[in-house]
Amino acid sequence: MSWIPDFGNPERLWTLLLLPVLIIAYLIILRLKGRVALRFTNTGMLGRVVGPQRRWTRHLFVAMSLCSLVALSLAYANPLGTEKQPRERATVVMVVDTSRSMAAEDVAPNRLSAAKQAAREFVDSLPVSYNVAVVTMAGTPAIAMPPSTDRGAVDRVLDSLQLEDGTAIGDAITAALSAVDQAPEGDGDEAAPAMIVMLSDGTNTEGPAPAGPTTSAKQRGIPIFTIAYGTENGFVDIDGKRENVAPDKTTLQTIASTTGARAVGADDRASLEGAYKEIGSVIGYEDVSKPITATYAAVALAFAVVAALGAVFMAARWPR
């Protein structure tokens, strides 16, 4: 819960204007009482008449009363908090890198085979009401599977993925956005929320830079979660030449942060499964506003009880 929540009825916060008025009134009363006290020359007699009171306790109990007023004013304005609730429906576009670098064997048995298995497990963990699409990311990205709730079809598409030349991250994001547009309409008035999960182990080598399509995703409110896949020492042999294929973590981090999503890394099978689970825990829930008036009312009650006890304490004639 935020220290400064949203309010369902912010116009009711005018009651907080009473706080400075009461503080000023209290200071004026203290000043007048001080002038009255100066009329007594025998302070011992004054002490026996009024009784012993500690100045700081009086101020403390007044402060508790004012704090109670503040909490009640905030409760009156209907404060709103947030809680995470499972999404009932969503569209998830899986973007899987199928470039030649995915043949690297730094992740057993190789990057692509491990990625297929982890992607299948991730898809199977999603609610059955979610539409899932698959986009291949190589030199010419394509929608391999339009959004569907048919998990068997998604698994078969993932199994059929083959290595291709090139890595076009920008075009892959554009294809993923097109896949979102193909999602079937739900029963509600609003379209189901959409998100993209991109797994890549390379640098953009084909097509436009990812910046433009990433900005389009941001404008549409579609987060792009990224997984930087592979080790820094991964390599493949291409035309008799050994090429290092370390993941481009910087580019993937920029894509995720620009769209308000999360970027994670994975350098082995276990960490890849963990990365998908981490992302799944985010996309499977949404923040929903809920009234938290009772919380503020409870705080106001606590302050009021302390203030009431203080009033009783100061009014009582304790034996000396």
TrEMBL record:
Residues covered by the VWFA domain: 91-279
Coiled-coil residues: none
SMART domains in alphabetical order: VWA
Alphabetical keyword list: Cell membrane, Membrane, Transmembrane, Transmembrane helix
InterPro entries xrefs: Aerotolerance_reg_N, UPF0353/GerABKA_families, VWF_A, vWFA_dom_sf
Transmembrane segments annotated in the record for this chain: 12-30, 60-77, 296-316
Superkingdom to which the source organism belongs: Bacteria
SUPFAM superfamilies listed in its UniProt record: vWA-like (SSF53300)
PANTHER family: LEUCINE ZIPPER PROTEIN 4, SPORE GERMINATION PROTEIN
Protein name in the entry: VWA domain-containing protein
Organism: Tessaracoccus defluvii
